[in-house]
Amino acid sequence: MVIFGIFSAHADIMSYIDVPSIIITVGGSVSGVLASHKLKDFIGGLKSISLSFKEEAMDPGAVIGNVINLANVARKEGLLALEEASNDIEDSFLKKGIMLVVDGTDAELVRGILETELTCLEDRHKKVIGFWEKWAELGPAWGMIGTLVGLVNMLNNMSDAASIGPSMAVALLTTLYGSLIANWLCIPTAAKMKQNNDLEVIIKEVMVEGLLSIQAGENPRVIEEKLKSFLSPAVRNEVGDAGGEE
Fold first, then answer.
1. Among 40, 102, 139, 184, which Cα is nearest to 94's?
2. What average pLDDT score do residues 170-181 get?
3. What percent of the chain has pLDDT over 70?
4. What are phi and psi of 245, to 5 degrees?
5. How many contiguous H segments (helices) and E segments (strands) does the chain have?
6. How far apart (Å, rounded) are the C-alpha atoms in residues 223 and 242?
7. Is the dihedral of CA 218, 219, 222, 228 positive or negative?
8. What is the DSSP code string of 193-218?
């Protein structure tokens, strides 16, 4: 849309490119983010940009279906049969929970272990999300700093009236670059990661509640209805009848 706005005004695209402004805005904001994080977290934050482009298959319906299948196995063959049934499960969190149940771990201890792991998972996600939120905060700030530097340079050369317009344009470019960093890159990336985090947390909570219900010997149909309560009405309708046979 920015490029469309430039061309619709029949402007020269090259007039929107200024290397010193880019260095001040991008370099300054990146250095600020680096100063706000440990080097390892900074590098991890930069690498996390790829996560916003990955569409991982996190389907609540499929998760509920897996849990109900496990509930049916436990109901027919006992909890020990879950160990063999877990061989086809790829999710490490769910598999860990199954093994705790199979080992006869107390229900409260199972909940505590899995919720602790879930909390640590959220903390790791929040650290990465915070990286992008901090950059979104510093981008416009450094854009304004660059604008102030440009205005000082312009005011120091007021004797040349012809240079005032171009100097002002260059000064404003840093504000533009800072806004682009925040609104085109950082804020959308952080928002996408928040959505993925919220969905993953819900799915993990479904797994925890499902495993504890299986351990308590509840009816698979009851478990299904209980797990659907974690979902919005629209998603519940998409899930449909995941219970299968009892």
1. 102
2. 90
3. 87
4. -80, 155
5. 12, 0
6. 10
7. positive
8. HHHHHHHHHHHHHHHHHHHHHHHTT-
